[in-house]
Amino acid sequence: MKIAVLGTGTVGPTIAAALSALGHDVVIGTRDPQATLARTEPGATGGAPFAEWHAAHGEIEVGTFADAAAGADVVVNATNGAGSLAALTAAGAENLAGKVLMDIANPLDFSHGFPPSLNPVNTDSLGEQIQRTFPEARVVKTLNTMTASVMVDPASVAGETTRCSSPATTLPPKRPWPVCSRNLGTGTSSIWATSPPPAAPK
Ligand code: NAP
């Protein structure tokens, strides 16, 4: 699948790398590709400088927000919440129309110091603003309540987790039903459960 990941902070590169590793064709969107590719300073949360990250992920193209969104089947909004509407406007309403738009952004408001509050909140939300502004996009608010590393590795959170693969997994032998792994949170044990799907009702 062709996926546009809009955002070059911590979340964008994290999601882009994970999707690319799964075999998707990923393009990262940014305001100014040349300036972004020239960045050598560490990311805001201390991550690798973008240039260094991109050198290790050369298969991921970097383009403008519009370049990235234009050819995508799915668009991910991983831009700063205060700039999300501007970023998506730059991406182009026509490039979002009819597509799933995964919105990970939070409209953080630091005007009263740290920790930030949300603005808008309670009577409106960034997700609703995005959906109103781009009515033809299919906005899905998701992953915004966890840190970036957990978005791509939910099993890293202590406690019981269950993950299921897609049917026809590449795990040998190929099975036409999902394969599930259950992590009991001990860090050592996991139980694999496989079963055929229930028979379709007649
Ligand atoms: P961030 O620093 O919040 O956002 C960086 C991105 O926002 C860059 O791509 C930047 O564009 C774009 N941007 C900033 N101001 C803009 C403006 N005025 N117009 C257009 N684009 C603008 O990065 P982040 O920490 O990765 O967070 C991304 C989003 O995910 C945020 O909304 C954040 O609240 C949310 N989130 C983050 C985490 C996390 O673990 N960090 C967890 C949950 C949710 P350029 O590429 O051009 O610089």
What does this molecule look like?
The chain is an alpha/beta fold and about 200 residues long. It folds into two domains: about 1-150, NAD(P)-binding Rossmann-like Domain (Rossmann fold), CATH 3.40.50.720; about 160-195, no CATH class. Helices cover about 25% and strands about 20% of the residues. It has helices at about 10-20, 35, 50-55, 65-70, 85-90, 95, 125-135, 150, and strands at about 1-5, 25-30, 60-65, 75, 100-105, 110, 115-120, 140, 160-165, 180-185, 190-195. The chain has a six-stranded parallel beta sheet, sandwiched between helices. The longest helix is centred in the N-terminal third of the chain and has 11 residues, at about 10-20. The model is unreliable at about 185-195 (pLDDT under 50). Bound molecules: NADP nicotinamide-adenine-dinucleotide phosphate (NAP).
List the helices and strands and how they pair.
Layout: E1 2-6, H1 11-21, E2 25-30, H2 33-37, H3 50-55, E3 61-64, H4 65-70, E4 74-77, H5 84-91, H6 93-96, E5 100-103, E6 108-109, E7 117-118, H7 126-133, E8 138-141, H8 148-152, E9 161-164, E10 179-183, E11 190-194
Bound molecules: NADP nicotinamide-adenine-dinucleotide phosphate.
Q: Work out the count of structural domains.
A: 2
CATH homologous superfamily caption of the largest domain = NAD(P)-binding Rossmann-like Domain
| CATH topology category name of the largest domain | Rossmann fold
CATH architecture of the largest domain: 3-Layer(aba) Sandwich
The chain-level structural class is alpha/beta
Ligand kinds: NADP nicotinamide-adenine-dinucleotide phosphate
**Strand percent estimate:** 15-25%
Using only C-alpha atoms, the radius of gyration works out to 19 Å
Unreliable stretches (pLDDT < 50, length at least 5) are 187-194
What kind of sheet is the major sheet? Answer: 6 strands, parallel
Number of helices: 8
Biggest sheet strand line-up = 3-2-1-4-5-8
Name of the level-1 CATH class of the largest domain: Alpha Beta
Q: How far apart lie the N and C ends?
A: 34 Å
- What characteristic shape results from the CA principal axes? globular
